[in-house]
Amino acid sequence: MPSPFPGMDPYLEDPTLWPDVHHGLIEAIRAQLAPVLAPHFYVRVEQRVYITSPVDDPGYPALILSAPPEPEAPVGWPGRPAMARPTVVEALVEPEIRDAYLEIRDARTHQVVTAIEVLSPANKVKGSRGQQAMQEKRRLLLQGGANWLEIDLLRAGSRPEPLAGRSDYVVALYRPQHPGLLVWFIDLRDPLPVVAVPLRPPFPDAPLDLQKALDEVYERARYAEQIDYTGPIPPPPLPPADAQWAQAQVRRWLAQRTMHAGPPAP
């Protein structure tokens, strides 16, 4: 079954599920764009690697290494002082994070034309290493003349001032030659839009159907069978009117699923 929601499914924002959703969206966007852009452009999955910590990125807790067995008593060398016995403590390991994103490249020069970033929770923690790494990559690409398409399908986390508090979800297009930021504001009740993906002259912008990409991910991963729609929507909480609307969508969806399932086998 399709999702209960006409646009973004807020249940997909669960931090334990989002990494899988993020991976699926990256691949679905590439699959949609690659045949349209060929042979003049190609689409590559790239990774941005950084080290994080629970202080910088609460969404990515540090790994705790179990303490090894206590060492045996040190053995002294003849004529040398015996070594003091150390205390064994647990160690914190800062995990290495790999943020996947897409780059559209010119097939002739291999230069980056447009980068497509699907935001993750770590990109939206103000001042975090994940946000800083993304912003630095965006700055370098824009300085080099590339475009940057940023897709934010997470209600939680911070947004820059021009985008904060305007809608539940947002897609922003940075063009180095354009004086302003091009933005698609999207609310929970809205289908995801078809957005523009800039190319190089003489080629016009390519369309990217975000709703089609999300629907394909939802169906391919069979999220309808994984998600407990009787449970609460992941935070942040919805406004009362939207919460009531979401509950009605879920009730209708659950009723349809029960009807499609048919009576239990005798």
What keywords describe this structure?
about 270 residues, alpha+beta
pLDDT < 50 stretches: 60-69
Strand content: 15-25%
Report the major sheet: 6 strands, mixed
Please compute the radius of gyration using only Cα atoms.
Answer: 24 Å
**Could you give the count of β-strands?**
10
Content-based structural category: alpha+beta
CA distance, first residue to last residue? 25 Å
Number of helices: 5
Commentary on this structure:
The structure is a single chain. The chain is of the alpha+beta class and 266 residues long. Helices cover 27% and strands 23% of the residues. The protein is built from five helices and ten strands, in the order αβββββαβββββααα. It has helices at residues 18-37, 129-143, 210-221, 223-226, 240-261; strands spanning 41-51, 63-65, 91-93, 96-106, 112-118, 147-152, 169-174, 182-186, 194-197, 206-209. The strands form three sheets. A six-stranded mixed beta sheet has the order 1-4-5-6-7-8, with helices on both faces. A two-stranded antiparallel ribbon has the order 2-3. The protein is globular, with a radius of gyration of 24 Å. The relative contact order is 0.19. The model is unreliable at 60-69 (pLDDT under 50).
